[in-house]
Amino acid sequence: MNNILEKIVSDKKNSVEKYKKSFSIGDLKKKISKYGNYLNFKDELKKNKISVVAEIKKASPSAGTIVENYDPKLIAKQYLVSGADCLSVLTEENYFKGKLEDIYEIKKEVKLPVLCKDFMIDSYQVYLARSFGADAILIILSAINNQTAKEIHSIAEELNMSTIVEVHTNEEAKSALNFKNSIIGINNRNLKTLKTDIQTTYELHKILSNHPEPLICESGIKSEKEVGEIVKKTKINNFLIGESLLKDLNKKPSLLEKILQIKAWFKDNLTLIL
Predict the structure, then answer these.
(1) DSSP string of 30-90?
(2) What is the dihedral of CA 8, 94, 134, 114, to 10 degrees?
(3) What's the confidence (pLDDT) of residue 265?
């Protein structure tokens, strides 16, 4: 295998097969029908001049362990108090040390829409994520072919879930425009090399600027100044940031609080996903 993305996808196939042996789609549909705590992720982003989707994760392949004493529910509560609008919860087991149960437990305590942040390779996973309370899923175009992406997106729409179609290259950005009802996430991190470059947002925005749904800047944001610059130059108002928020969570003011303070600086409807 040539890159980390290939390794993650290969391991994810094994994980999905294990779940399939335990829960049929019929089982998951029954669980979904009984769950009454779903929220609209995309609509929440559209409400605010600047909205923050704060990410919850224990570790990552690029950073290693980020949070030693990992308590997802406690982090979610801290984000809520600091003003986050949505949450992104890593549920990938081997490389990010997450689990689907984290979403279910968080949503019992915190009323914020939750993105299931994982590597979707099979439409079965959409039912699985929804059954644990997820309000949105991530579709990473570099991880799957276009047909699989369309199938996953279709099931998510059937289940009234928001979708984020994630792109990193010009070709992926052009493909993402076919998902007209989806949020599009620009990932500044190359998932094959794990390197980040904020210029990716500026470049791909040129292709995506007329997309009718929200755009999200993902990865690599380290300061409120970077957020302000991206907003000014692109009008992108969604930012997904994890590591920088988590490392800064207990400071006063935290990075999350600093970013939310810049809401007053802009009059346009802007959204940040951190």
Answers:
(1) HHHHH------HHHHHHHSSSEEEEEE-SEETTTEES-SS--HHHHHHHHHHHT-SEEEEE
(2) -100
(3) 65
**Parts of the chain with a pLDDT under 70:** 1-2, 263-274
Q: Which of 114, 125, 149, 117 is nearest to 23 (CA)?
A: 125
Report the 10 Å Cβ neighbour count for 231: 22
Paired strand residues for 86 = 53
Tell me, what's the pLDDT at 49? 75
Residues with Cβ within 8 Å of residue 254, at least 6 apart in sequence: 82, 245, 248
- pLDDT tens profile 83-118: 899 999 999 999 999 999 999 999 999 999 999 999
Q: How many CB atoms lie within 10 A of CB 29?
A: 14
CA-CA distance, 102 to 110, in Å (whole number)?
12
Nearest to 220 by CA among 248, 186, 254, 172: 186
Residue appearing with tokens 């990992």: 70
